[in-house]
Specification:
The chain has 332 residues and is α/β, with parallel strands linked by helices. It has two domains: 4-98 and 291-309, NAD(P)-binding Rossmann-like Domain (Rossmann fold), CATH 3.40.50; 100-282, Rossmann fold (3-Layer(aba) Sandwich), CATH 3.40.50.720. Helices cover 36% and strands 14% of the residues. The strands form two sheets. A seven-stranded parallel beta sheet has the order 8-7-6-9-10-11-12, with helices on both faces. A five-stranded parallel beta sheet has the order 2-1-3-4-5, sandwiched between helices. β9, α10 (220-225) and β10 (231-234) form a beta-alpha-beta unit. α1 (13-22) packs parallel to α12 (291-309). The longest helix is centred in the last third of the chain and has 19 residues, at 291-309. It is globular and about 70 Å long. The structure holds NADP nicotinamide-adenine-dinucleotide phosphate. NADP nicotinamide-adenine-dinucleotide phosphate binds next to α5 and α7.
Length: 332
Amino acid sequence: MKKRVVAYKKLPPALLARLTERFEVSAFDGVNDANRAAFAEAVASAHGLIGASVRMDAALLDPARELEIISTISVGYDTFDVDYLTRRGILLAHTPDVLTETTADTVFALILATARRVVELAELVKAGHWQRSIGPAHFGVDVHHKTLGLIGLGRIGQAVARRANLGFGMNVVYYSRHAVPEAEAAYGARRVELDELYASADFVCVVLPLTAETEQLIDADAFARMRPETIFINGSRGRIVDEAALIQALKSGAIHGAGLDVFEREPLPADSPLLQLPNVVALPHIGSATHETRFAMAEMAVDNLIAGLNGQRPRAVVNPPSRPFAIEGEVR
Ligand code: NAP
């Protein structure tokens, strides 16, 4: 009997075919109110799940007694209760590395767009309002040779640090639970406490996972410690920031601007005050959203799922394996 798989995000046809050759697949193009009941029913009898951006709670997963692996098409796994999955013996696999450079590009795009007011001024041109040479009212601020403060210096943080230091001659300071000596050697990154980072960085950039520890880490007190020149960048998860405090800091001039790819609520509600602020560049969570990288992520997630269901070690597992893998080593 073929194992049953639920794909809850649309997969490229060639990758879906790799699954349908091996498994009985129920495919969902996202989960919404119209298909939620059918999705829950399919999950209840599944051996494997693959997809992204759907919160998986115990109410959904408790009935799924045969579930062996969830393969998320993302590096972040804050939509899962990892301890619950581990207790249940369910593997959680994810897609680190393949999206690192693309997401770092997005973060850097936000840094440049916010500092140089790219979106605001491009809209001015499109609206036909460019009628004479641009003067100080429309000048931006420099990025090169400024100080970048990275909160988190993992895979994506280090890729941003490389762009900043080697490409733009920026000084890099960072806050992390552990020192990252290779980034210190390669990019001159200096590890500091948060207070020093807030006080010294021209750009404060969050590249952390969302966890119980990091939720609302950037609060009103944090914004109060930043400088009026600070540009705040968030390319990781919206809930790491107290969004009301961010809005207040932007409105009051406590900080200069913000470049945001992620928000407390997504899609960002159309009435969000953030959309009224000219010093905000808001993107629709596009960190990894290029054709090449989204394909690579889906491919890695499919590899992870096939490996897990074959009793092999997926390339990237979040939770400690609760059972031995039949064959150790690389995925075929
Ligand atoms: P990673 O390699 O695991 O890096 C995470 C970094 O955060 C590490 O340096 C880690 O350092 C640090 N960290 C974790 N908890 C911390 C805490 N409580 N205090 C201080 N530092 C802490 O992950 P990554 O691949 O760079 O991805 C980071 C996050 O970016 C993902 O989790 C995801 O949510 C987000 N992301 C967003 C997009 C997007 O579309 N916008 C795309 C990709 C990823 P230590 O553990 O050593 O302290």
